[in-house]
Specification:
heterodimer; A: mainly alpha; Rna Polymerase Sigma Factor, Chain: A; Arc Repressor Mutant, subunit A; 2 domains; 9 helices; globular; B: 5-stranded antiparallel β-sheet; about 25% strand; elongated
Chain lengths: ~180, ~220
């Protein structure tokens, strides 16, 4: 991959319906985006469905990308997460049981490694997350990595839904203050 | 100053706990801000590789969506044409104007440039359609069936005719997403599909019923 091709530059070309740029963007971003859809769907077939939805959405909506509001990869990751959650919820009845997401290791952090990643950003996020109480911290991780709804979080964490809701709200406020301080 | 409740709402939608509904511009910006907060978690994941045919699946999905759009566009065009024809018929009733709608119907798209030709062949009788794209620079026609059912005993055969000539065989439509066949054609020529025995028509003319036909017209690139 030519290092000169960044997600931001390629998205600008994709917005002009440049199919070669679209292919380059696929080569650049698909391993990371597939990691996200696979982590959420926990099934390669569903994760590939989500990845297909992600790239068709990127082709149609690339003109909505605004580099002033974040990097290209952040924008792409958000689309991939949303598509994976949609696919997961469409198929939730049978796949969750099959994938065994009720296992005790559901809360484990993923194997984090990426030579290109800004670890300072990840580090500050994790430090802020650690400042939260157990329930909201676990709820954030489960919602992000597993795509859980509030009701599912309540069942998984054996906590009433209203309590999950209020603890998450307190958690979000604390998280925001911490992240803004860390900037 | 953004309220605490707006931040919480944005965090919930960014995390996927709440669905993304109708949003104001400010709400959308706030959700994106939270997506940026959470993004390191996803971007730090170790890369995974999808199956090798993934890229082709994405291209096929985009082609299907594009085909559906062209069919919808064509059907809207047909509806408008019919309404316009009916209106014209009413005005000219005293002149006993007749409007004949042929079946199978020949339909076409509007044009702005003339590098490529296109036809969308449909029928009033049966479902499905055939997207026909012709590139005069390489003299190849690309045919993409939409909703056609192939079976082992018969085949779809492609025919080409000019306003002055009888249909001539072009080739058989393959049971896959796209068939490419060599052809020399012009705007106004007709591409038709007939149902034939497995090896094609035994003669140089359609032996089975013509299912779809459409006229080539210029299309914007």
């Amino acid at each position: 991959m030519d290092e000169g091709y960044t997600a931001e530059r390629l998205l600008v070309s994709v917005a002009r319906k440049d199919s070669e740029a679209f292919r380059r963007l696929y080569d650049l971003a698909s391993p990371k985006l597939f990691a996200i859809t696979l982590r959420i769907c926990r099934d390669r077939g569903l994760a590939e469905d989500a990845l297909q939805d992600t790239f068709t959405a990127i082709w149609r909506r690339a003109s909505a990308f605004d580099s002033r509001r974040g990097t290209g990869m952040v924008w792409l990751a958000a689309i991939a997460r949303n598509r994976a959650i949609n696919v997961l919820r469409r198929n939730s009845k049978d796949t969750r049981a099959r994938a065994g997401v009720y296992q005790k290791d559901a809360l484990r952090l993923p194997d984090l490694y990426d030579a290109r990643l800004d670890y300072a950003e990840l580090d500050s996020f994790m430090r802020c997350l650690d400042e939260l109480d157990d329930t909201p911290r676990q709820a954030v991780l489960l919602a992000y990595y597993e795509g859980w709804t509030r009701e599912e979080l309540g069942r998984r964490l054996e906590t009433p839904v209203n309590s999950i809701k209020s603890r998450l709200r307190l958690g979000f406020t604390k998280l925001r203050h911490c992240l803004e301080r860390a900037k | 100053m953004v309220s605490k409740s707006k931040h919480i709402q944005a965090a919930e939608t960014a995390l996927g706990i709440e669905p993304i509904g109708a949003e104001t511009k400010k709400e959308s910006e706030l959700r994106r801000r939270w997506e940026r907060f959470f993004a390191p978690l996803g971007l730090a994941l170790r890369e995974e590789y999808p199956s090798q045919d993934m890229w082709y699946r994405i291209q096929a999905a985009l082609d299907r969506a594009d085909d559906q759009r062209k069919i919808r566009q064509t059907k809207r065009g047909m509806k408008r044409w019919r309404l316009a024809a009916l209106a014209a018929g009413a005005i000219a009733a005293g002149l006993a104007a007749f409007i004949v709608i042929k079946s199978p119907e020949a339909v076409s798209l509007t044009a702005e440039k003339t590098e490529h030709y296109i036809a969308v062949a449909t029928s009033n009788e049966i479902e499905g359609a055939l997207i026909v794209e012709y590139d005069p620079s390489d003299e190849m026609v690309r045919l993409r069936p939409v909703g056609l059912t192939f079976d082992d005993s018969r085949n779809f055969q492609v025919w080409h005719s000019t306003p002055e000539s009888q249909p001539a065989p072009v080739g058989l439509l393959l049971p896959k997403s796209e068939t490419r066949l060599p052809l020399v054609a012009n705007i106004g020529d007709t591409i038709a599909i007939s149902l034939e025995p497995k090896d094609g028509s035994p003669s140089d003319a359609p032996s089975g019923s013509v299912l779809y036909s459409g006229k080539l017209t210029a299309t914007p690139e």
